[in-house]
Amino acid sequence: MDLDTLVADATAAGLSVATAESLTGGLLAATLVEVPGASGMLNGGVIAYQNDVKVRALGVPAELLAEHGAVDARVACAMALGACHLAGARVGLSTTGVAGPEPHQGKAVGDVFIGVAIDGEVQAYEYHFGGDRAMVRQQAVDEALALLQQVVAAAREQKL
User: Would the pTM count as exceeding 0.90?
Assistant: First the structure.
């Protein structure tokens, strides 16, 4: 993926982006800011590694976390929407999952959900990655960027 083009296209399309990261711990936002000009599209991000931060900073319902745990499609959706609200962005990307080395809350290592919000609409995508902790985290970032690329392409075609 050409990140320079992704950032330039997002900026040209007038898309503002915010991240809400648990499993990736800021790696997604850090990957975007490696690109000169990322300030034209990236509003900010939240590292919500602990559930109480998901609740307080992103507005994830505590009941949702208590009932389903953090590794859940609904949590990914709430995180993405919360990032949009907090940062004033049109697009929110969230990552939540199990990087390992051990399973967590009944979820296997490599179970990941990525949330994508655009203008208040949100969808979560489920993945089952292989590899070690670093590989799971990097695959989550790569997939989140691929999803962002789809949003940007749709926006550039004036579908959004």
Answer: yes
